[in-house]
Design goal:
66% strand; 102 residues; Jelly Rolls; eight-stranded antiparallel sheet; mainly beta
Amino acid sequence: MEFSNVSVKTKANVYHSGQVTSRSIVTATGEMKTLGVMLPGTYRFHTDAPEAIDVTQGQCRVRVGDGQDWQEFRSGETFNVPAKTQFEIEVTELLDYVCHFA
């Protein structure tokens, strides 16, 4: 995956005591995305807008909302999280990702 003609926000987004970090980019058409890394661990996030998360390296398990079921995702796969909800992600090995905001 490659992005051309983007603006990069140089201040890092840092979550969970530095275990999760990302950088925000804005495409020429105004789309906002983050490019990030998660170290092994389990994390909880809340969304304002719908998110599509591409796993570009590694693997994880995800549980969206109040669901009881975990779904597994590997490099090359995408999971979606609705707006105004939460999700838990369990990272079993270093995870690179791209988050697309709607």
